[in-house]
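Final report, results section. Input specification for complex C-07:
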Amino acid sequence: MSQFWKPGSERPRLIDDEEGGVIFYSSSPSTSSGFGYATIEKQRQRLPVYKYRTAILYLVETHATTIIVGETGSGKTTQIPQYLNEAGWAEGGRIIACTQPRRLAVQAVASRVAEEMGVKLGEEVGYTIRFEDLTNPDTTKVKFLTDGVLLREMMDDPLLTKYSVIMVDEAHERSLSTDILLGLLKKIQRRRPELRLIISSATIEAKSMSSFFQTSSKKRKGQTGEDLEPRTDPAILSVEGRGFNVQIHYLEEPVSDYLQAAVSTVLSIHDQEPMGDILVFLTGQDDIDAAVQLLTEEVHNNRKHSGLIILPLYSGLPRAEQDLVFSPTPRGQRKIIISTNIAETSLTLEGIVYVVDSGFSKQRFYNPISNIENLVVAPISQASARQRAGRAGRVRPGKCYRLYTEEYFVKEMSTQGIPEMQRTNLVSCVIQLKALGIDNILGFDWLASPSPEAVIRALEVLYSLRILDDDAKLTSPTGFQVAEISLDPMISKMILSANLLGCSEEIITISAILSIQSIWVSVRGSQKELDEAKLRFAVAEGDHVTYLNVYKGFLESGKSSQWCYKNFINYHAMKKVIEIREQLRRIAQRIGIALKSCEGNTEVLRKAITAGFFANACHLETFSKGGMYKTVRGSQEVYIHPSSVLFRVNPKWVIFHSLVSTDRQYMRNVTAIDPSWLIEAAPHFYEHQRGNPVAY
DNA sequence: GAGCACTGC
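Structure output:
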């Protein structure tokens, strides 16, 4: 192995003593010396671990914003809320809020804190995620929630007045909700000087977070000159974690085929390194299946490779197969998990000692000009590479093999990666800000500004849906109602139109189904059987009405998992559909939509769909071969996806829910329409020309 | 006749 691999030159992280150790550094000179440690300025000083609590409480007391940086395992997430609670930050009916970007993390952290405090989950310590509110308004003092839920709470309480401290965890991940939330929190801070923010982030983002929250500190003195308000310059506290050291190895020479390189690296680790599981990061299902097959063949052909358990891991994998990665490795064997990015942040695997990092992942990019989102294989960032490597050091010191050179890591890889804000469609983001009364989206104080093109495109789409008016303000009632519905605005618009057309009962079912990945079981081997199963539900109107038949069948079966199995339908997906539908029903009730069924009238159904998705209208190119369509607006070449029930049926006019772009643009979830409905639904968008609709 | 990184409300 030594011929190909070169150890990294980055010095191992300092974990200096068995105490753990806290390093404190303040971004500004301190006037107080009461604690004996706060005199250090822009200079690192290690403090004994018992002062962790003191340091945090002091900083939160004196600074409006505290930025906590550090590694996993440093106890930031679980200890800080407890310190704050003990220090009285949740007295007098105030609540300490702690956000996470993922539902699972919220649940896990909340139950751990409840356990550590010796209280019942849902009382002093509670959590709120979509579909689940385990809090008690009378007793909850520490509340964990997803950042998306906190954003939703702002719709009713824009200043988040019930919270005394808000801690935002994993801020370095820079998810869309986190970025929006941080921008809004900074605004709130100006109106609520008593509010305390704690931003928890990876070390690499500390500086940008700190300068973002840095505000001019003019009015800090009260009339008599005493300090009334906290310091407005953020403090930075750095906490070392207890993770084990991970030795980094780079390739001596670059390789062109990372898949092959990954396979041979796994085999040489198995031959030459002591026992311990291996985690391999590849990009997607295709890569992973190919690698699993190559390794399995190798195990069959070569006896020295026995004792290997090879497991794929990606989100589309059926639940039972996903769970295999969590089963303990039998003694004398070695587990090899070949995974997408799901293992980078979403899942934590125990027992990993070796990581093989391809240096690539699939990433979504949005082109505001064509209004199309693309999924492409792209190089990861240095931050991502560090995160992947860290997965090897959870149980004991580990090793990470990077399938690229150190020069590439240092010179070619970007340090951070592009925030989601800058590579996604912004319609939902814009409508959320509009609902909070923020009208100047481009002028908003962003952590990372979205491109003007993307903002303009989002405004345009919302305007065409009559969600925004000529002044780019929310229309009443449509715009305000759409903002209440926690779905894609085009779907929300479809629901509102269904109310007028008398088919809301059916349309909220369709909406629930459209907002999950797929209701079909993904099976590679038995494609034919799946297609046959689909035909049992398929109708000429298209995929949307077909979904209604599936839902009806599921209800008639008594929500049976057996029935799902027989019909190649994903049972877990259907349960989720029921859950989302129930939430939509509640929201509909709240905004005054009466549920009404159209009793099988599919024309009004398709008119409601058209009212939301008129912009996605296409017509068949009559003289072209192979079912080529062109979008009415923009004349883009598109095709019906083979998974659609309208594949090869090729109706003359269709609208689609979304595009998948590979070598071609494929329309997913397609419904046949009458072109006259387009002008009826959106006279501001389409006009007649020689009997057919044409986009303005 | 082909393909879906990952979250979230």
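The radius of gyration of chain A is 27 Å. Residues 571-590 of chain A form the longest helix (20 residues). This concludes the modelling results for the funded period.
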